[in-house]
Structure formats: structure tokens, C-alpha cells
Amino acid sequence: MKKRIGIIYGGRSGEHEVSLQSAESIRNALDKSRYEIVPIGIDKKGVWHLADPARSLLESGEGNPPQVLESGPAVLPIAQGNRVVLTDRESGERRGEVDVFFPIAHGTYGEDGSLQGLVRLLGAPCVGAGVLGSAVGMDKDVMKRLLREARLPVPRFVIIRAFDRDQISFDVLDKQLGSPFFVKPCNLGSSVGIHKVSDPDGFDAALTDAFQYDTKIIIEEAVRSREIECSVLGNDHAEASLPGEIVPLSDFYSYQAKYLDDEGATLKIPAELDAETTKRIQETAVRVFEVLECSGMARVDFFLEEDGRLLVNEINTLPGFTRISMYPKLWEASGLKYPALLDRLIELAEERHRTERALKRDFSA
């Protein structure tokens, strides 16, 4: 009997469109002889829709991100025994079943532990990090403070919250971090809402934009360095891929370069590094994965300075799976093909689920 894989995509996030591209890539790569694919699209209002698996998940114009979810019946997930049943929101009719969820809803409500918590309550295996790892990995402030506590070097940063945005100025930040510096929403990815700032006017505009996506903003120093990424895979005994390097062809690795423009950046896979540096990056990537309580998968991003100093930029617990995404490309360069990678991620989700189900949940003297 085929295993039913519920690919969850879309969602109420600034990364909604990116998520649809990742979902399409995963759908195409999963072994149809082993899996029954159950595409579940979450619209921007948070409604779950069961899509037609025989049709494309995406509708897009040339050069633009996908704009809408495939229409389909609105459904609700309901736990029934060891599986999850998708029922029609209107009629209550059974529309499908899911054995393992593969969430690829990047960003808010999909990558921050919210969706992972729901799946956990449903009692189903979930690909990727759990509630804690997802939440910590999503919040750049908490993530960097934990890494710093573990003596892992990170770039200098300052946090601004919405209620005190008028208490700090460009000049103060220039003295603390130097300029230019980066303005980023704390709880978002895919370069959404990120700005490189060099002057007071640019700072005000960057804050206004970033605060559209989050109530907490991180200001980071601009590090002159090589941008190195490393994929991590596993649960208790995680392993790291060969590192890759991103060479942006614009000012920085923007949303456009990541998802819409095949020529927006040069990807060097594997990165041109000596054996010692490669090993140090791999070991640090696994250490970051462990410190932040991650499981399943993650991509760890680094800055490698000219003098060899390695800084941890961030972790991405739900990395992109588009045709030009680094996470699967790095594993392919390390000898693990895309379909086999997806198989392994599903196995890891089931492994963690079995471990958690074996824990005692009641107390008796």
C-alpha cells in the first residue's frame, strides 16, 4: 500500500509564493510508485484546500512568482486512530487521508512551529524540525542569542521592537555596527522585507517596510565575506553536506535572485574550499543544528571572512526546494539524489514520531 504524503504549501506568509514553487518541485520528485501525493494548499486567509494531484499546483506568469493556489474543496484535518482524515468543511464528507505530512509552507505560521504544533496534536509524523526547533530557528533574535551563548560566533546585531522604533537613529547604529548595515524582519525568510541601508532616509524606509512583516526587527552589520551554505540532515546523529557558495551578482542575495532569476547569483557547488575549512564548516553546521534543537533537515548559512574567521549567519529549518534551491543541490553534490533525499526526510519524520509516541504520557505511582 502506498504511503500517503500530505504536502502542505502556501499559507498566511510573505513567502506564500515561494512555498508553491517548493511544493511543485517536491511533488514532481517524489516516487509515485511508493507514495500517494495529497496536495494541501493553505490560502492567504488560512483555509486549507485539497488540490487535484493530477494538475499543477502552480499558476504563474513568465518571470513572476505563482500567484494563486489551485482551487479545491476546503478541508479540515481530523485525527482518527493512527492517521489523519481530511474532511470537507461544508459536508463533512471524507476527502482523503494522510500518513505523513511534508510541510513546505515557508515563513510565518508554516515554519515557525505553528503548523508543526498542529500536526503534532493530530498525532502524525511531520517532516523537518519540531515545534521548538522551528520556533527558535525562525526568530533571528532568539536564534543568535542561543548561538552566542553556545560560543558560536555571529555578526553584531541590534534588536528594535515596534513600540520603540523612534528610540534609535541611523547615526547611533552607524556608530555601533558601521554602515552599510542590514534591516530584516526577525521572523521571516527568503529575503522578504530585507534592506541594505547606507543613509538615514534609507533607514526610515527600510524600517517602514520591515515592520509590515514583523513587530521585531533585527539590524545586522554588513560583513564583507564569502557566503557559504551547508545542508544538514538527520535527527540524533545529523550529518552535513558539502558546503556551497553563493556569489550574488547584485548588491546582496535578494528575493529576485533566489527565486525568480536563474542568473541572479552564481552557485558554486561544492564551494572552492580547502579540506580543513570544509570540515570546520560541516562540524559547525551540525553543532548549530544541535544547539537550536533541530531535527530532520536544515540549511545553515555562514559568512567566511578573508582571514578564515567563520560567522554563523542563520539557520533555515524549512529550506527552499525549488529547482534552483541550495539545500537539495548540496545533497546531490554530496551523493544523495533528490528523490532519495525526500525518502530520507520522510523516514526521519517517522523515526522521530515513533520515538515520541514511545514516551510515557501518564503518571501512575
Written description of the protein model:
With 365 residues, the chain is an alpha+beta fold. It has three domains: 3-126, 3-Layer(aba) Sandwich (Rossmann fold); 144-152 and 224-356, 2-Layer Sandwich (D-amino Acid Aminotransferase, Chain A, domain 1); 156-221, ATP-grasp fold, A domain (Dna Ligase, domain 1). The chain has ten helices and 17 strands. Strands 12, 13, 14, 15, 16 and 17 form a six-stranded antiparallel β-sheet that branches. The radius of gyration is 21 Å and the shape is globular.
CATH-derived architecture of the largest domain: 2-Layer Sandwich
Task: Give me the CATH fold name of the largest domain.
Answer: D-amino Acid Aminotransferase, Chain A, domain 1
What's the total helix number? 10
Overall number of domains: 3
Please state roughly what percent of the residues sit in beta strands, choosing from under 5%, 5-15%, 15-25%, 25-35%, 35-45% or over 45%.
25-35%
Total strands: the figure is 17
Determine the CATH superfamily of the largest domain.
ATP-grasp fold, B domain
Which CATH top level class of the largest domain fits?
Answer: Alpha Beta
Spans of at least 5 consecutive residues with low confidence: none
Quick structural overview:
The chain is α+β, with helices and mostly antiparallel strands and about 375 residues long. It is about 30% helix and about 25% strand.
List the helices and strands and how they pair.
Blueprint: E1 3-10, H1 16-29, E2 35-42, E3 48-50, E4 75-80, E5 83-88, E6 94-98, E7 100-103, H2 114-122, H3 131-138, H4 140-149, E8 157-161, H5 170-177, E9 181-185, E10 195-197, H6 200-210, E11 216-221, E12 226-234, E13 239-240, E14 244-248, H7 255-260, E15 265-268, H8 275-291, E16 296-304, E17 310-316, H9 326-333, H10 338-357
Parallel strand pairs: 1-2, 1-7
Antiparallel strand pairs: 2-3, 4-5, 5-6, 8-11, 9-10, 9-11, 12-13, 12-14, 12-16, 14-15, 16-17
